[in-house]
Amino acid sequence: MNWLNKLEQKIGHKAIPNITRVFIIANILGTIIYYGSGNVALYYLQFSPSLILKGQVWRLLTWVLMPTGSISIWSILFIFCLWMLGTSLENYLGAFRMNVYFLGGVILNDIVGMVVYLITKVPLSLSIYYMLISMYLMLGLLMPNAEVRLYFVLPIKMKWLVIIYFIMFGMDIYNYFSYGVAVGISYGIPIVLALINLGVFVYSCKHRLSFKQNVKQKARQQHYKAQFSEPRPGSGITHHKCCICGRTEVTNPELTFRYCSKCQGNREYCSDHLFTHEHYQG
Fold first, then answer.
1. Separation of alpha carbons 231 and 224, rounded Å
2. How confident is the model over 35-51, as pLDDT tens digits?
3. What CATH topology corresponds to 3-205?
């Protein structure tokens, strides 16, 4: 059992439900404040190490209100997609793990932001944007073969979307540093921190087996697939059937089938729908 599982057993009941929505609403609120009073109000909310050291400690948290873009049809669509994605990830990972992702990211940004300022005297321009958009990377790293419809039209597998976002992040970092070291530190390091937070989180969420256990598991999987590589006599009887698509181990021997512990009743799903279905509550 890794550290995240142990921590969840101890304080998991204290997790904030729908925390993704909390941060999205905070970002929307910051945008409304910006359009209502310009930068005047946001000046007292943004991350400023020099002022934090003078006692304005609320800035360690209020920087999550900093707006990440203008109001447009694309930004509204982006927020809607993030809202739905956050709900799906919380259903899959649980509220506690999403709390760890967001609150851990805030703490990481605060600590590194203060350390970087003490060393370089350059304040980081912190916002929640890259932490939110990294949820697409999270989904792709945890479920690389899951398929989504980009802007509800174009079907694309998450593993390709992960590559696209990594390239975009890399280009953003490069562009910021092309304007100078100070700009690169201020705007580029928050992107790196978002990726570090994501990497640690995804690594902690994945159940890793030892080398011997992994070998044994692959051997069992190969043996299982070999059993159903040929149609069985009287093959109208099957042991496994997906509740979503109806495929079985006979019609699709390349698939694996698992029961969902969060659904009521014995509901079994294929590997394509195990992590993407809506949990059945009866």
1. 14
2. 877 677 788 889 999 99
3. Rhomboid-like fold (1.20.1540)
